[in-house]
Amino acid sequence: MTNNADISQKLADAVREAAANHALLAIQGNGTKAFYTGALSGTPLDVTGHRGVVSYEPTELVITARAGTPLAEIEAALAERGQMLGFEPPYFGEAATLGGTIACGFSGPRRPYAGAARDFVLGAKIINGKGEILRFGGQVMKNVAGFDVSRLMVGAFGTLGVLLEVSLKVLPKPARELTLAFEMNAAEAVKQMNAWAAQPLPLSAACHADDTLYFRLSGTESGVRAAQAKLGGNAVENSERFWREIREHRLNFFQNGSPLWRLSIPSATPPIDLPGKWLTDWGGAQRWLKSDTPAADIRQETEEVGGHATLFRSLNQKRAPLAVLSPGLISLHRQLKLAFDPHAVLNANSG
Amino acid sequence: MSQPQPIPARTLPDKAAVARALRQFLPPAGVLTDEEDLRPYECDGLTAYRKLPWIVVLPDTIEQASRVLRLCDERNIPVVARGAGTGLSGGALPLEDGVLLSLSKFTRILEIDPENRTATLEPGVRNLAITEAAAPLGLYYAPDPSSQIACSIGGNVAENAGGVHCLKYGLTVHNVLGLKFLTMDGELITLGGKTLDSPGYDLLALLTGSEGMLGVIVEITVKLLPKPEYAQVVLAAFDSVEKAGEAVATVIASGFIPSGLEMMDNFAIRAVNEYARAGYPNEAAAILLCELDGTAEEVAEGIVQVRELLLGRGATEVRASRDEAERLKFWAGRKNAFPAVGRIARDYYCMDGTIPRKHIGQVLTAIGKLSQEYGLPVANVFHAGDGNLHPLILYDANQPGQLARAEEFGGRILELCVAVGGTITGEHGVGVEKINQMCVQFTQEELAQFHALKAAFDPKGLLNPGKAVPKPARCAEFGRMHVHGGKLKFPEMERF
């Protein structure tokens, strides 16, 4: 396989043909996040051959790459120039591609302080469900011409279009990172994370696992040192590995067999009274729950605090790709899907 | 579904009957129909475009706003939503046969949540009022468009407004957590809340910057950030705009994310020195204002490095603000730049293209040449760190032909931005102003996709018709006229 190939015409032809024949297509990268989307109906449309960095200009803080490009390749190119992806994307498998990363829209521990995947998307080239190649957004920092279709693609799981190219804003790597650990329970940790987030500190991650609050500082040498002096705590050795394991769900917490729920809730919400094991990330705004509690109970408790719950990983439950929506929202989703994919060709769920 | 359904053919309903129906549920002062009452609504911040609205309504509650929309939907009456009316692209330009829905009565700050660091607001709350309300908690709302004293958060969301500090803290889209909006048929939809994401498609991003075409925003939840401990500004002078442009690229490439990086050319420098006694070096071809914020330690370390970078790029003079008073003084000139230019010229026309930063010098030089070609002066004062240009074209509307010349000149600048890989609007929106240049930036298929998307929210095409996205026929016409170098405005043409 070559490292650089543009097969957009071939992909567009395939979509056009499927639309004409009312056939279904299942967009396929390297399958690292198939556990999340569940099985898709239709003929696989392999986009991994559409790959390569199209342009990368460190002085512009912008990288544009084809969807099939391995994420690792992109991150390596950035690291060479002292830059990085600000949303610290989870891979969930070494072969993760840029397209899958954006289509799923997952973000790592840096998300509350630096932004989510969608916050860094500047532009996208897509194939809509009619097989037309369309370009939205661009490669500049600010762009309000037309509707923000490129951000709409983030987290749409390929149901609105096949991603061909994505332009991302990138960030300089901080000169220094330091993780501090504090022993405390979950309730205290949530309070502490939010109290510190309200202060001008160079924060870049805050999570609570195994009765320990982990707090990451990123910035200049002197800025991080000053913050450490203010906060105290114990410096964590080899912390890069710790955050990677959180991000990739490789900590022991994620390893047992109970279903894994993701709760997105207001960050200062005190611990929720649901049975199971908890891990708090994103400064309190993302809570992971390993629990066998019925889905309806988890959803209800989460909605009561103003959030939403998603079944993230499960061995034996079928899952829907989208969470529960209000009737008005469901109708808008249907209309939007029709607007982009009128023949319902792309990524139909078979579940 | 690929083509939007056209607005059904209709005769204009009886104005008195519609006003009567609206007064059934709106207070008497909430329905305006007389010319003298309608006059203040004839334009927004882009005053070159004016139209008297048919009827203006000023609801007090979401329920009332919803009923207005339902009534208009049933009777096929188009609706234009309006916030504070400070927009610069004519997005709130009324329709002679449509209802103007003013959200000016929705001015309450519904909640400041200190624990979650959020503010929940009605759409008419002024941008600066959010920061003022959050200040006692040591928090603030980051996006700061230059009209922040007057502009409202609802309009900020509709336009995805930016500002000086969005280089580091993002645009409106990066700072909004939740929205409530009404669809054209009056249904209330809730997106997000105080969480960092919401289930389903990212409609929050889609609604942001949608220029009132998809729904009417009636409640907004934004995130609040801790006020930085310390901020300091460096002022650097250059003897050419190219050198200043290169210095911008150098600062960005060096790993700094300044909280603001602004540029002014000599014309703007002289204007503000006279108007605001800014004390900028009068002879400089361009100056940069580079602000760093963070902890005192971070800023001190950064200022030393930025100073070296700027000197290394040929700055003839570099001054760092010595205290808060001087920092504010450095900014005062920048913040007064538009009124300062306004004092020199009878009228000015503010453009808003964005380009890759490396092309700043080249594009400014080209704008200078166009300025000579059209015989109209230009002042450049803009968000250099984002590559977001704001050329101010000076003209006199009372001189026959000058406005048309200014508009054509502006159009050429925007096309230049597209040609170097940029966009026709960074933060002001398309509105009515840049609708022709949309044809330059997007293909017919892309525009058709925008229309289909719009129809998903507003199948009858009644919300803010004629703005933001041109009809294919208009582009064909524009292309032809453009080739012949004729006038660019076709008010009589059918639009979206």
TrEMBL record, chain A:
Domain named FAD-binding PCMH-type: residues: 1-173
InterPro entries xrefs: FAD-bd_PCMH, FAD-bd_PCMH-like_sf, FAD-bd_PCMH_sub2, FAD-linked_Oxase-like_C, Oxid_FAD_bind_N
Pfam families: FAD_binding_4
Keywords, comma-separated and alphabetical: FAD, Flavoprotein
Flavoprotein found in the keyword field: yes
GO terms of molecular function: catalytic activity; FAD binding
Record protein name field: Glycolate oxidase subunit GlcE
Organism whose genome encodes this protein: Candidatus Muproteobacteria bacterium RBG_16_65_34
From TrEMBL, chain B:
Keywords of the record: FAD, Flavoprotein, Oxidoreductase
Residue intervals of the FAD-binding PCMH-type domain: 49-227
An example Gene Ontology molecular-function term: FAD binding
Any single Pfam family the record assigns to this protein: FAD-oxidase_C
Cofactor: FAD
Transmembrane regions listed in the UniProt entry: none
InterPro entries cross-referenced by the UniProt entry: FAD-bd_oxidored_4_C, FAD-bd_PCMH, FAD-bd_PCMH-like_sf, FAD-bd_PCMH_sub1, FAD-bd_PCMH_sub2, FAD-linked_Oxase-like_C, FAD-linked_OxidoTrans_Type4, Oxid_FAD_bind_N
Name of the protein in its database record: Glycolate oxidase subunit GlcD
Species in which this protein is naturally found: Candidatus Muproteobacteria bacterium RBG_16_65_34
